[in-house]
Design brief:
Mean pLDDT: 89
Number of helices: 10
Structural class: alpha/beta
CATH topology of the largest domain: Rossmann fold
Order of helices and strands: EEEHEEHEHHHHEHEHEEHH
Number of domains: 2
Bound molecules: adenosine-5'-diphosphate
Radius of gyration: 19 Å
Length: about 260
């Protein structure tokens, strides 16, 4: 389970990116985070793997608080899939997937580029799982199409059998058909693994199709939290146009989770 407990983030320039966000995301859930650009989706996801340090509040994974003492241990349980894939373009597909184990190996091992046979075997299995063939293994990652690069990103993310998968706009630069395939792969791989997925998206139809739950954010606050069925067209309008929810945003001053599902 991922728990956000009154998370607050003010950037050094004074931008308030998150305001009193409290959420509990149970193990195995595919939770989609929606909201206009600048709503705080990325900042929220990054609080789970320590890429963003909150100004206040706590993030817990299975009741272990993310802090300097637990960071190394927790980071190994959390994988991230990025909008722009974050592959090393000049390296092979195989090397990019194997890089998924780097958080768990020593610096010397990482620099040597030596991986255990079982890790190589797993990389091949995962590439097969995401629909890439052995012919792709030695190709430069940068030579693949966007959809293929994101398949590599997914394989890399699952190298460490993550308990949590953070997917930050994973299909933002892909066409609709490939986006659906990619989200299907993330969902199915996470299900097989029993992993929790926290995925930011900007496509409403895909959020409804793939999310077990939709969290709507606006101005750093959670303004909708409910099932895809509850996320009606009126909710979509309110989330993106803001009229209804901006008026009632002062709830965020309370130290309570904002669990608003407007039907
Ligand atoms: P979203 O992912 O919903 O588009 P973000 O989480 O990226 O939103 O950003 C939330 C707010 O925080 C925005 O106003 C953004 O400009 C601001 N922000 C994000 N990163 C930084 C940063 N490093 N320094 C200052 N402001 C930032």
């Amino acid at each position: 389970m991922i728990q956000f407990d009154a998370i607050h983030k003010v950037w050094p320039d004074g931008t308030q990116a998150l305001c009193n966000v409290s959420l509990e995301i149970p193990r195995g859930q595919f939770c989609v985070v929606l909201g206009p650009s600048g709503a705080g989706k990325s900042t929220l996801l990054r609080a789970v793997n320590g890429l963003m340090r909150p100004s206040g509040g706590r993030v817990l994974i299975d009741d272990i608080e993310f802090n300097l003492g637990s960071e190394r241990q927790l980071r190994q349980r959390v994988a991230m899939i990025h909008q722009h894939f974050n592959l090393t373009n000049r390296m092979s597909v195989a090397a990019n997937v194997l890089a998924g184990v780097l958080p768990s190996v020593s610096t010397v091992r990482a620099l040597s580029g030596w991986f255990k046979p079982e890790q190589r075997h797993k990389a091949c299995q995962l590439l097969d799982r995401v629909g890439l063939t052995p012919t792709h293994l030695k190709r430069r990652a940068g030579d693949l199409s966007g959809g293929q690069q994101q398949r590599v990103g997914i394989a890399r993310a699952f190298m460490m059998d993550p308990e949590v998968v953070l997917a930050d706009e994973p299909v933002a630069s892909l066409d609709p058909k490939i986006s659906r395939d990619i989200l299907g792969l993330i969902r199915d791989a996470a299900r097989e693994q029993g992993a929790t997925v926290l995925c930011s998206l900007h496509q409403i139809d895909l959020a409804r199709e793939f999310g077990d739950r939709i969290v709507g954010m606006r101005n750093g606050r959670v303004v909708f939290d409910g099932s895809p069925a509850e996320f009606t067209d009126d909710c979509v309008r309110s989330l993106y146009e803001g009229a209804h929810w901006d008026d009632s945003a002062d709830d965020a001053e309370q130290n309570e989770p904002v669990q608003r599902s407007v039907a």
